[in-house]
Design brief:
single chain, alpha+beta, four-stranded mixed beta sheet, four-stranded antiparallel beta sheet, 17% helix
């Protein structure tokens, strides 16, 4: 029983570390925005589609940095963000 519990905890830890960052977003702009994102030292691009409320998952760690024309924004798994005038803003954090 002890081995099973230890194995379960180890798998849960590894799965959560590589699950990524899931964000709920609302893009108020009438155009799509693609931003550069860094997570776990890896660089990628994420697109937020125009006039949409949706979710996006950034593969990697449970936190990330999104670079927009308005500066860098640190986000973590479960955050809610708004994109307005090409800027990313965290409005709710878990």
């Amino acid at each position: 029983m002890k081995k099973t519990l230890t194995l379960f905890l180890a798998i849960s830890f590894v799965a959560s570390a590589y699950a990524g960052t899931t964000l709920r977003f609302y893009n108020k702009d009438s155009k799509d925005h693609t931003f550069k994102v860094v997570t776990c030292g890896n660089h990628t691009d994420v697109t937020f589609y125009h006039s949409t409320t949706s979710s996006v998952t950034i593969q990697g760690c449970s936190d990330a940095v999104i670079s927009s024309g308005c500066g860098d924004v640190k986000v973590k798994d479960g955050d809610k963000v708004i994109i307005q005038d090409g800027c990313v803003k965290v409005v709710s954090s878990l």
